[in-house]
Amino acid sequence: MPNTVTVTVPATTANLGPGFDCIGAALTLYNTLQFSHLETASDETLKITVQGTEAAGVQTDESNLAYQAFVKVYQHLGQTPPPVEMQIHLGVPLARGLGSSATAIVGGLVGANALAGHPLSSQDILQLAVEMEGHPDNVVPALLGNCQLSVSKGETGTGWEICDIPWNSKIVPVLAIPDFELSTAEARRVLPPTYSRADAIFNTAHLGLLIRGLETGNPKWLRVALQDKIHQPYRKSLIRGFDQVRAAALQAGACELVISGAGPTLLALTDETSASQVAEAMTQAWQQVGVNPEVKVLQLDTQGAKIVS
Fold first, then answer.
1. What's phi and psi for 276, nearest 5 deg?
2. Are 243 and 232 in contact (CB under 8 A)?
3. Fewer CB near the terminus (10 Å): N or C of the chain?
4. Is residue 38 within 8 Å of residue 46, measured between CB atoms?
5. Where in the chain are all domains bearing CATH 3.30.230.10?
6. Inter-CA distances, 192 with 123, 226, 238, 308, Å
7. Which CATH architecture has domain 4-165+301-308?
8. Phi, psi dihedral angles at 125 (to 5 degrees)
9. DSSP, res 241
10. pLDDT value, residue 216
C-alpha cells in the first residue's frame, strides 16, 4: 500500500439549462488533494494544509469535507482510519456553482480507497459519493469525467442509472466566475414547491433536444435546448447582471448562456472561433455592473478523478 497518494478532481457544471439535478459535465479546472500516512510520535491523527486563493474558506479540522469522505471509506470497510496528513491545492472556486464540494467528497473517497489498497470499486465509490452529496449531478462527472446523466432507478430498483452523454468536440464551454458567492441553500430557497404541467413538458422536451444538441454540436438545437423553466427564471434574480451578461454572450456568438449549478457562475456554450470574443464580452458586461469576473475558456474533462504520480 502506498504511503502517499495524490488525487486530482475536476470542477463540474451541473443542470445545463433543462437538466436540473440530473446532468453534469466535468471541466478542465481542478482541485488537487494529497494524502499521506502521518508518521508522528504524538497523538496527532490529522494535519491539513490548504493552498490557493480561497484557502481561508476551507476547514482544517475534522469537519473538513474531504476528510469526512476519507473517514467514510474506512467506516464502510469496518476499519479505523489511519492518521493522515492532507495537502489541498484549490483550483476550483468555492460556492460558485462549480462543484467544489463534489471535488472534496470524490477526492477524499478516492484518496482513502487508494491508501487502503483499492478495496472499493468505482461503483462503490460512486454510491458513497452520492450518499454524502445528496444528489448525483456533480459527484458523478467529478468521479467519471465527461458529461453524465444520472437517473433514479425508481420502481425498478434502488440507486442510479448513469448514462454518458456524448459531447461534440466543437462545443467550447466558457465560464464567467464572479467575485461573489451564492450558497446552494439560498439558490434552492427561491424555487417554487410545485410546477405546472406545461413547465414539466417544456423541460422534458428541451432536455431531449439538449442531449441531441450536445452530441451533434448543432448550434440551432443548442440555442433552443438550453432554455429552462424549472430553476433559471427564479435563480437569475440572485445573480446581479445576469441579463446583461447573457445578452453580451449571445451577441458575441454564444449558442446560449446558462447558470452553472446553483450559480452564480455563468456558462456559455460556443464554438472555437467565437470563444475568445464571448469571453471578452462576458467580462465587459459584468464589469459594467460592478462585478469583476474571472473568465475561463475551458474544455470537457474526459478522465474525471485520477491518481497522479
1. -65, -40
2. no
3. C
4. yes
5. 4-165+301-308
6. 34, 20, 15, 43
7. 2-Layer Sandwich (3.30)
8. -65, -40
9. T
10. 98
